[in-house]
Specification:
Belongs to the NADH dehydrogenase family. This protein is of the alpha/beta class. Helix content is 27%, strand content 27%. The two termini are 41 Å apart.
Length: 470
């Protein structure tokens, strides 16, 4: 029962990584005898795998492949409302949508983030963004259109400009997009009988690539980008966007046919203007239990939550990994409230970092060490596989965090003896070309990551040899 004796109404706004995790966890854990109504609200009837969006923009994956229909994953206990959030009535405890107001006992705000143009003149009007599947389709269409237009150009300089893609922002999204396009753009040009050597991808950032990562990882990623022919411009601040490119603080113009901004995100304006306490980039300030400050009936999770890393004093970045962990904490705390137990504080467990660069390479930081090449790409595929399984068949285990394993490029065989354990995931070598990943939270299943890039999932056999570190 809620504070006034009625049934609990838990409304979750947003079906991204955090919101969907809250809905699935609560549906799985709530006692069916309790009077609790769960409602999930999103403007789409599908869940987007935002970590795979750069592949859609590069043309290597179809848009439908990175959309998971909600109808196929939601428990019958979750009432899904496809609607747009229009506002909030915090006094009356109602979420306002274009489908009507939704009363709540507890509200979970997991509305994600939006591209941040930082007030740079011309950026919002002239640059494409990459923060949704639809964004990715627009980027792909723009690249295709510029290549087609280059065919009809008589001026070689104009052809080269149209065959150039300029990306502002060299975080994970920008780096992954650059890697995808560096491989796909030349192939597209050749199909139109244009010289592939005229194609160019320029990646710009005011700081460095993958800012916040270790120097070793940054160096490895830089080498891969250079191998792919990407022109990386760091320490280059964008101050204006034009019809044909970016103007840097130095006054230099970087021109291209397709201009993409991936330079950062912020909270939705709707939330920033709601009266909730917001901090840097419009993210909501929260307490240690992930409740909005001065609003104990509102939880915030995912990109929208402003959580400070106690070690650095800086806000945690908006990543899927953090959103999923926050979703777990919010679900646990809602369950604790319903059952009259104490709340748990949110603690971030860093499970590693993986960035794909092109179809076959990437970089990763796993258990405090950097790896690159094919192994990083395989890890990325395994993480996606495990996440898809966790969404479709939630049985008490989490997405794969990190593993160390396949005897592949940049990894010494001496590093692979026995097994590696990190945050609930055990990796063990089963053959020279396969790494089997066991989740210690769900030992009946394993994921096999093969050096040819394929990933398979099967029932796991009992391990006879003790796992070192488990």
């Amino acid at each position: 029962m809620d504070e006034v004796g009625g049934p609990w109404r838990i409304v979750i706004a947003g079906a991204g990584y955090a919101g969907l995790r809250v809905a699935l966890r609560l549906a799985a854990k709530l006692d069916r005898g309790r009077r609790v109504a769960l409602t999930l609200v999103d403007r789409h009837d599908y869940h987007q795998l935002l970590t795979e969006v750069p592949r859609v923009a590069g043309g290597s994956r179809a848009a439908g492949d990175v959309r998971i229909p909600l109808e196929g994953v939601l428990d019958e206990r979750v009432d899904f409302v496809q609607a747009t959030v229009d506002g909030f009535d915090f006094t009356g405890r109602r979420l306002l949508t274009n489908a009507g107001p939704l009363p709540y006992t507890r509200l979970v705000l997991a509305l994600g983030s939006r591209p941040n143009d930082f007030g740079i003149p011309g950026l919002a009007e002239r640059a494409l963004t990459l923060w949704s599947v639809d964004d990715a389709r627009r980027v792909l269409a723009a690249v295709d259109a510029q290549v087609a237009a280059a065919v009809g150009e008589s001026d070689p300089a104009e052809q080269r400009r149209r065959l150039t893609v300029v990306i502002g922002g060299a975080g994970a999204t920008g780096v992954e997009l650059a890697g995808e396009l560096a491989e796909e753009l030349p192939a597209l040009a050749r199909r139109h009988d244009l010289p592939s050597g005229w194609c160019k991808v320029v990646l710009i950032d005011a700081s460095t690539i993958l800012s916040g990562s270790s120097p070793e990882l940054i160096d490895r990623a830089g080498r891969i980008l250079a191998d792919l022919g990407v022109e990386v411009r760091t320490g280059a601040k964008v101050v204006r966007a034009t019809e044909t490119g970016f103007i840097l603080e130095s006054g230099e113009a970087i021109e291209g046919g397709t201009i993409v901004w991936a330079g950062g995100v912020k909270g939705p304006d709707l939330v920033a203007e709601s009266g909730l306490p917001v901090g840097h980039n419009g993210r909501v300030k929260i307490d240690r239990h992930l409740r909005a400050l001065d609003h104990p009936d509102i939880y915030v999770a995912g990109d929208l939550a402003s959580v400070t890393d106690p070690e650095t004093g800086h806000a945690l970045p908006p990543t899927a990994q953090i959103a999923l962990q926050q979703g777990e904490t919010v679900a646990n705390n809602l369950l604790a409230e319903v059952e009259g137990r104490d709340l748990e504080p949110f603690t971030f467990l860093d499970k590693g970092f993986v960035v794909s660069i092109g179809a076959r390479r990437g970089v990763a930081e796993v258990a405090g060490r950097a790896v690159e090449g094919r192994l990083a790409q395989v890890l990325k595929k395994a993480i996606e596989w495990e996440y898809r399984q966790s969404v479709k068949h939630l049985r008490g285990w989490s997405p794969m965090a990190a593993v160390v394993g396949v005897p592949d490029v940049q990894v010494s065989p001496n590093d692979l003896d026995g097994a590696a354990v990190h945050q609930g995931i055990v990796g063990t070598r089963s053959s020279p070309h396969t790494l089997v990943v066991f989740s210690t939270l769900e030992p009946r299943w394993s994921t096999s990551c093969h050096t040819d890039g394929t990933v398979t999932r099967s029932r796991a056999c009992r391990m006879e040899t003790p796992i070192r570190g488990a």
